[in-house]
Design a protein that fits this description.
Blueprint (H helix, E strand, L loop, with lengths): L26 H20 L7 H19 L17 E3 L5 E3 L24 E3 L8 E3 L2 H24 L7 H25 L15 H25 L4 H21 L5 H32 L3 H27 L13 H4 L1 H20 L35 H5 L32 H4 L5
Antiparallel strand pairs: 1-2, 3-4
């Protein structure tokens, strides 16, 4: 049940000191700044290591996001009869609209709404992109939420890959954790696209991680990989060939859809990623036709079975060529030779064995004409299909009270920026490598 997964690198970020100076006017406000800075640092320290325990990551994630909540939404609205406090970084515009004062930062001109915390645009946030596009900078804590949650989702996918490649035979408990992690990652990417993306002050740039096409591709890829686990389980338990064929066909369809989603993105950013999706599409189409051939043989339709197995053999050869192209293609991801990986090598003898069997049976017993058309595959499996786990965001920390919130006196001067402060480049994340059981043949190195 050994698997191999393509993984893009984690996102890197600039440090956030949450140094409001005198504008954090009370001890409680200053304590909140210290708490969220430490929570962010703890989470960032855990993410590069896919070997970390899932419970450790969950605790760190909840701690940070629950504190971040208060920087996105207000803790206390204006009381009846009182004039609503304007964040000093704003000025009234036409028709009573609240407009942020112009700022030299990239997010200047963004407006805060009635449901926004006065702190939402008080801190400059900088993150890299997983695909190599230039770093993104916004003055928006929703942007921070999106990028950090995306990194957590990437960790889930890497943790799943670590378990999948840790031994030749994955236990049932491990398979369930892999499956759950991949579905959870898919749910996080989907949550970002559905619930957070539209809230950004700025329109996302093409080819960046906040491009909806990139988020859709991550969601589809994680869902497809979760289904790979289901498919491997079905094979190991000797389920019917018709079910295995249908699951393989659906898995191939998901990988094809992932590749198609990336088709309109700049080629240099996604070429390697698309090669991965294309080779897995070909691989699972080969598997689908292989097991469909076995199903047809069981129905005494041996001529069609021969044609199905020949198509399976053709798709396998196509997958081999795509594996070679993947290894030669430059771009974010892993440097491997997938055709030498156990997951890939196990299918070829199965295809050859069943093809020889159906040709032999047709020559000695059935004498059926082999059709020119490839037999149709079952469109969709009746059960066993994977889907994203719905993500539930942590609630706001109880540390956020009206007293803490009102202790922040935000002015037109950006509290977290110092005059003449240099904009330091973001350093790539130094990730712990994902070890594979057949690492001598296919060691995974994040590029």
């Amino acid at each position: 049940m050994t698997h191999w997964f393509h993984r893009n690198p984690l996102k890197a970020t600039a440090p956030m000191k949450f140094d409001f100076g005198a504008q954090a006017s009370t001890p409680l406000a200053r304590h909140m700044c210290s708490d969220i800075r430490q929570a962010r640092e703890r989470l960032l320290a855990i993410l590069p290591d896919p070997n970390q325990d899932l419970g450790v990551l969950l605790a760190a994630t909840e701690a940070y996001f629950s504190l971040l909540h208060g920087f996105i939404e207000p803790t206390e609205g204006p009381k009846q009869g009182e004039k609503k406090e304007q964040p000093p970084s704003q000025q009234p515009g036409q028709d009573g609209e609240m407009l942020e004062a112009e700022d030299d930062g990239p997010s200047g001109g963004a407006s805060l709404g009635a449901g926004d915390s006065k702190l939402r645009n008080a801190v400059k946030v900088k993150w890299s992109n997983t695909l190599g596009a230039p770093p993104m900078v916004m003055r928006d804590m929703v942007f921070e939420h999106i990028n950090m949650l995306m990194n957590v989702a990437l960790w889930y996918s890497k943790h799943a890959a670590k378990i999948a490649g840790s031994s030749e035979e994955v236990s049932e408990v491990e398979a369930k954790e892999i499956h759950r992690c991949l579905r959870s990652a898919a749910g996080m990417f989907k949550y970002i696209e559905d619930k957070l993306l539209h809230k950004l002050f700025e329109k996302p740039g093409d080819g960046t991680d906040v491009d909806s096409r990139i988020l859709q591709a991550y969601t589809l890829q994680c869902t497809a990989e979760a289904q790979e686990v289901t498919l491997a389980r079905a094979i190991s338990l000797n389920h019917t060939s018709s079910l295995i064929s249908a699951l393989a066909h659906e898995t191939a369809r998901l990988f094809r859809k992932t590749s198609d989603t990336l088709k309109s993105v700049e080629e240099s950013l996604v070429n390697k990623w698309r090669k991965y999706c294309d080779l897995k599409t070909a691989f699972y189409m080969s598997q689908a036709h292989c097991y469909n051939g076995q199903t047809l043989l069981n129905k005494d339709e041996c001529g069609k079975a021969v044609r199905a197995l020949k198509e399976s053999d053709r798709m396998y050869e196509k997958a081999e060529l795509l594996c070679q192209e993947y290894a030669k293609t430059r771009g974010p991801g892993v440097s491997v030779r997938p055709e030498q990986h156990t997951f890939f090598q196990k299918l070829r003898p199965v295809v050859k064995r069943i093809l020889e069997k159906v040709e032999r049976e047709n020559g000695f017993i059935y004498h059926q004409t082999v059709p020119a058309e490839v037999p149709d595959l079952e469109i969709k499996a009746t059960y066993g299909l994977a889907s994203p786990v719905e993500y539930e965001a942590p609630s706001k920390s109880k540390e956020w009270t009206s007293e803490v919130y009102n202790g922040f006196k935000v002015s037109t001067e950006n509290p977290t920026e110092k005059k003449n402060e240099k904009d330091e480049p973001i350093k790539p994340v130094k990730e712990v490598p994902i070890e594979q059981t057949d690492k001598d043949q296919s060691s995974c190195v994040i590029s």
